[in-house]
Specification:
It contains 4 helices and 3 strands, in the order αββαβαα. The chain is of the alpha+beta class. The protein folds into 2 domains: 92 residues, GMP Synthetase, Chain A, domain 3 (2-Layer Sandwich); 33 residues. It has a 3-stranded mixed sheet, covered by helices on one side. Strand 2, helix 2 and strand 3 form a beta-alpha-beta unit. The longest helix is centred in the middle third of the chain and has 25 residues.
């Protein structure tokens, strides 16, 4: 069973995804995907993790600026859509976990390519020591 912060985080994530798809007029934030929302235990602050299609550092900076500009609007819309006493403060954080996952997969692929192709190669290598 999920805790209250987890449930509210899921709800905030769903609403932000909908808002960014339908209501975002700023081209810098139209390609944003909200990957996860982590709420504090007191439900006052939400750390919103996101990714974007623009992989360059410049695109990330523009997206970050766009999200900062849109934060008051997004908080206001959240206040109309979710039932909480206090709408949480939103902090947007670029989610690097997908990039790390891709790097790990790439390293594993390289290791697999460098590994001996048959089990006999492994046996021969270990028997010569």
């Amino acid at each position: 069973m999920q805790s209250r912060p987890e449930r509210l985080g899921d709800q905030v994530r769903a609403e932000l995804c909908a808002l960014l798809q339908r209501s975002a007029r700023d081209p810098a934030i139209q390609l944003v995907t909200v990957t996860h929302v982590r709420m504090t235990k007191d439900l006052q602050h939400a750390r919103v993790y996101y990714t974007t299609l623009g992989d360059t550092e410049t695109a990330r900076r523009e997206t970050s600026r766009g999200l900062r500009r849109a934060t008051p609007f997004l908080r206001g819309q959240l206040g109309r859509r979710i039932r909480v006493r206090h709408v949480p403060e939103l902090t947007f954080v670029y989610d690097e976990s997908i990039e790390r996952e891709q790097r790990i997969a790439q390293v594993l692929e390289e290791l697999r390519d460098d590994a001996p192709s048959t089990p006999r190669d492994v046996q021969e290598d270990s028997g010569t020591r």
